[in-house]
Amino acid sequence: MNTPNDQSEQHIGKTKGLPNHAHDLVHDLSSRLDALWRYDQYIANAEQGGVADSKQFWQELKTQETKNIDRLKELVRQRVKDGGF
Hints:
mainly alpha; about 0% strand; Ferritin; about 80 residues
């Protein structure tokens, strides 16, 4: 037997603008772009604080994140090209 709460939530997620796999790519790309944007501030903060090891850490993360973003963008391009969007 469904409870009133179960009934009110039974349709959540039925309407999708994209297939799950495409949504996952776009969502993760957005999150990573936000993080990349913040790394410049983190690097500046570490530099202003005179904390070289922290600055190095944020620069390394920024470099890796840039590679991740490039890969995600390529996957999005492929999904668009093959009609997966």
